[in-house]
Give the backbone structure.
Amino acid sequence: MTFPVFLFILLIFANRYIFGWWIRISRGDRFDEKKSGWEPTVTVVVPLFNEGKSIFDTILSLLALDYPAEKLSVTVVDDCSTDDSYFWACEAAALAPDRVTVLKNPHNMGKRRGINHAVREASSEIILSVDSDTIVDAQAIRELVARFTAPDIAAVGGRVHVLNANDNWLSKLQTIKYFFGQEWVKNLERSMQSVMCLSGCLTAYRRSVLIELEPILENRNVMGVEIKYGEDRFLTRQIVKAGYRTLMCMDAFCYTKAPTTLTGYFNQQLRWKRSNVIDLICGLSHAWRLHPLVCLHYLSMLLLLGVYPFVIIEHVARGQFFGLVQFHLVVLGLLGFLYYFSPSVRRLEPQYRVHPIWFLPMAVLMPVAYVILTPLGALTLDSSSWETRGHGAVVRP
Amino acid sequence: MRSSGGRLISLLTARPTGRVESTEPYPGLRPVDLDKTIATPPPEHVLAAADALVKKRSRAKPQLNKWLVSVYRTLGFAILTVIVLGLVTYIGTSIFYLVSTSWVTPAVISPTDEHVLGLASKLAEQSSQRDKLAGDRALLVANLADVDRIIAMDEKFAERFRRAVNADIADRRAELQKLRSLAGEFLGARGEINRSNRAFAGHSRLRNEQLKQAGLIDEDGYLSGNYQVSQMASANLQLAERAVDLDAKTTILAREAEALSATLDTGDGALSYDALRVRQEYERARLELEKARDTRTAFVESLAAADRSIERYDRIVKSIQGSPLLAAAEGKVTVVMVPYENLGTVKPGGGLYACALGFFACHRVGKIVTVMPGEMEVRDPHNGKPMRGQAVQVELSDASAAGESVLFARKPLFL
């Protein structure tokens, strides 16, 4: 590897693990301000596609959240599931007809339009987007709405834990990956209150902002080709682009199932890669308006997508792949220690914690995923697939 | 969306397509009113805004966008195909080279080849070092001969010196013996003469007195008689002087003999000044001899070391001269590099094959001649890793095969 590539990788590491952490520490309490006592009306929007009976349990768990019942409603939007998901959603709605609404799109429109559909139907101040396979913590809504401390805060995302952390090696690996993805990688963006991607699993939006942005969200396309995936990243970016602030709240959390098969994992990674590529490229038009550090981070992430596969290919071509894997193992080992001793991990119940050694397979999985999925994602951006996880029912922990 | 109302209604009222065991899993709950689930289209202003956005964008470059998307899709398909083919090829080739033991890499060696020049330069350097050592050795040999001469001369001098001193000692001792013998005889004779002279002088003096008193002799005769007596006393005195001379001579001779003897002894003897000077000369000569002998020993050892070094250089030079690379460069033969793992497949007289498509479509391009001595570095044609191996001389019936990156000692996969 040449010197600039090393410098670049160092920059990314510094952005992720040093600058963001340092700013977070230096801001102290101001980093995560709360407004207590505010209880706006909240509509939980659940986009639904082929989740089967698990949607029934999800809806019931949402109704049981710790929030005044008269201010909390649930809207499920079925995007023309091909299984019995719609039926089960209706069954759940029948239990609380005044609080649950089940909508069905006229045809498969994608998750984003499904959310728009629900937003139009709702009348509450806050829209909480929740994935249909997600289990939301009882306190999550209170924690999220407490972060809307100013009118220009348009979205607050929650933290996602892996529900099936100890299922197998792949879920264990992803548990640690999720930890870094939320607790470290977004530190810089969180510090500047410009988080560029709030997970669709658990994010609260001001409905007024969603209504304001609806034409843009409805008309999401690139060169006339409609883009259906990565709606959460696109929506967050549009909110930031419109001049609003986006936050992440680590005290509001939910649990979601991570893929337990390589096929499922690669499908998920492919979807995320496509979303990353298209959104990072489209965001170039306004990235310069971000805080310089966030802008640098943003650009470096885009560059990483392009550079990293070439670094791997170069090593493979030189017969140095295992040297690269060794380097990854060292870095991942260090990160594993960081995970193991992190206070937020120590606070988790044992079933949601994993041994850091399970992060080591990432040394092979990550280069392979980058080399194969980055070009595949970049060259199939016009895919219209939902590529949903499609796994079975979820049991509330 | 509104124009396709019939289709919309049918979509919205459609029952779930999945298999449902029971439509009432929770008894007592009221049935679902599916009419409530009909989707609400976006409000007019949203549709208008979205349409405006679409029109604004599509007005700008509708054809260009279409064309760009088509190009992207075509390129995407082509690139992905290339990537998949590349991956399959790479994996296939990796597996092939992992198990293949028949590949060899051709190398047409030119005298101006970097490696050949390197070897030639090394050969010149080693030869020059060897020649320099040979020159040093010749100088050592000359010095050794010089030292040998010095040693011989010094040894000869020492021997002659000893002989000369011994002869001198013998002479002196013989002379001393003679002198002592003479002194003994002289002492005896002198006593006899003294006694005779004293007796004659006493008798003569008495007779003279008697004669004079008797007046038988005159004054002249009396004086003449006394004069004879004094003559006798003088003779006695002369004899005593001679005795002293003899004694002195004996002493000197004895001392000289003793001093000369001491010059040959290693211990400290009573040396005369002259003997001391001689001894000094002798000691100096002895030290010179010792020095020469030590120098000789050093020269002999240096010579042996030089001989060993020259022998080593000879081996190195011979090894370089025998290098297959140089041999190939000088003889203009074609060689192929074969890793040790594949040497078992390379048999003299065996065929050599080139393939058009990696390891497919192969044809014979020559034969193996001989395995050349000496180790060579071989590059794995797949991953470029250096490997240890040997050069093998080959004969190519198709000269263009020398330009191939890889050849095979047998048909790969029997294709």
The mean pLDDT of chain B is 79. Chain B touches chain A through 52 residues (CB under 8 Å).
